[in-house]
Amino acid sequence: MMLRLAMATLARRRARTALTTAGVAVAAAMLLDMVMLGSGMRESFRGFIEQQGFQIRLTPRGTMPFDSEATVGGGAALVRAVATDPDVVTVAPLLGAKLFSRTPGDSVVSAFVLGLDPAVQGDYVLVEGRDLAADDELVVNASYLAATGRAVGDTVQVAAGYDAQMRRVTGARTVRIVGRARFVMLGGSERAAAMRLAAVQAMGGRDRADRLSVVLVATRPGADIESVRRRLEASDARVSALSTAAALQLVDERLGYFRQLAFILASVSLAVGFLLVTTLVTVSVNERIGEIAVMRAIGVARWRIVAQVMAEGVALSLVGATIGMGLGLVTATWLNGILAAFPGLPAAFDFFFFEPAAAFRSLGLLVLCGIAAGIWPAWRAATLPIARTLREEAVA
Amino acid sequence: MREIVLAARDVRRDYPVAGEPVHAVRGISLDVAAGDWVAIVGPSGCGKSTLLNLLGAIDRPTTGSIAIRGKDVARMNDADATRFRLTGIGFVFQRFYLMPTLTAAENVELPMAEAKLPRAARVARARELLAYVGLGARADHRPYQLSGGEQQRVAIARALANRPALLLADEPTGELDARTGTEMITLFDRLNRDGTTIVTVTHDEELAQAARRVVHMRDGAIVDQVLRRPLADAVPAPPHAPGTAQA
Question: Which residues are within 8 A (CB) of B114 and not within 5 positions of it... i.e. 6 or more apart?
Fold first, then answer.
């Protein structure tokens, strides 16, 4: 009956309860969004890195993958040396470069081209056509097709360099577009293409001969990745070796501000939820002080008064948190759509990552705040001096 | 010889107001026998309500003892006093104080639910009590759908729910018009005749005249007692009467 009384008390002032619940829901939504934002970018990076299926990345010493245009020479020998490590099962060399393509209107469109071995690549997912089979073939993304006005099956003139004043290209060759793909590490609006490694190296002439931007390394299952990384880094002074864990650590360091911001805003959300519930329950107790005194007078135990008042706080938090969860997911999707449209971001990059356990933990925290919010008004209600309260109520 | 339900001995209640001690009740001794109906009267501020609160174990005397059915309620801790109020004392207040979100029947059930009476038993008892106070047809009405007199009847039914040894009423006709007040006095009279022991605090001369004994207070002390109807006249209560305290 006490629980019913608590719910009926909330229903007594419907508009006020609804407004408070809405306030708690907004706080819960913000809390959920901040929790999702705190881990979203990191988890997106993890997803991209793990999707590629490689555990170690070799880059020119002191650089991050594709952070600069730096390359390392003697690529073939480097790949052979890495492959001799007993814990290495796959080696995927990559060379990133610019690609200039002539459109049917005779203008030139630039794009990013990845030179790779299609048999061991993890950078794109084919969505139309077929994969690369020869040096004069090209797999491109939708933005490239849109910008060049080409379609899968078309031939296109491409080049490694372009002199705008002379309107002359270097390393030109005619290739055929054999497939359309989604490049996992590149933004949806970014024009991208992939060719066989040898073709990209050859198009660049002597400057690119046998040069590599990154070497991706897959280790055998159960291998101690950190040991392999150390061995590979020690074996060639020209390269740095970066494991997935280290890459994520770097991402963590770079996203530190985001997480701090998310933590502060999440804390503010919790505080707002706490204050809303405390305010409503305190006002509710103050309005019913006479009723509560009478309940105590007719023999209702203190703990039941405490339970009734706290049940109001819990109910408000629980309903608010449940609504807030849906609201948070909707706003996260909406905000994600806005933020993901930033130029240069991978198409599948998510700023908000929904992790059920973390979401329920944070909303559980909000409900705990609701319980805590009810403690003071509940204690006040339970310990009020009955006789004095009744006397004051009678006078009032 | 009737059982003494309430025995107050040299009860005093002092409390500070603006740093000055106020002697609200000064050494009152009072016995109330089973089946009696005592009306405490006196001018405002003479300590009537304070005395009633002390007798009902919702306040503690500064000194003295108050025994209800032999139990010293003045020495009980809060949990014991709360439990004792639940089953041993019924309260009726001037302003009714029904729970506005509950129906009349649910209001009557409230003390029984607190006493952990099975649902079926408390529903039946609530219906019986509401019928007794003349509100059988209004059981599912909420307080705002009832008149003042009807609300006070529900409050009386609630007070009788756990078959208390003693019914305490603080100005029960204070918020009612003259006609409804008279109806209430008739109900109290019926309750008393059916065996309920009653102590009322009142300014209502008509209510005081209906009681068996009238106790006059002034400045926190009893100055006079008038026996209006001897207790021997009281009709023994039938065992099933709704207001009858459990043996």
Answer: A1, A298, A299, A300, A301, A304, B86
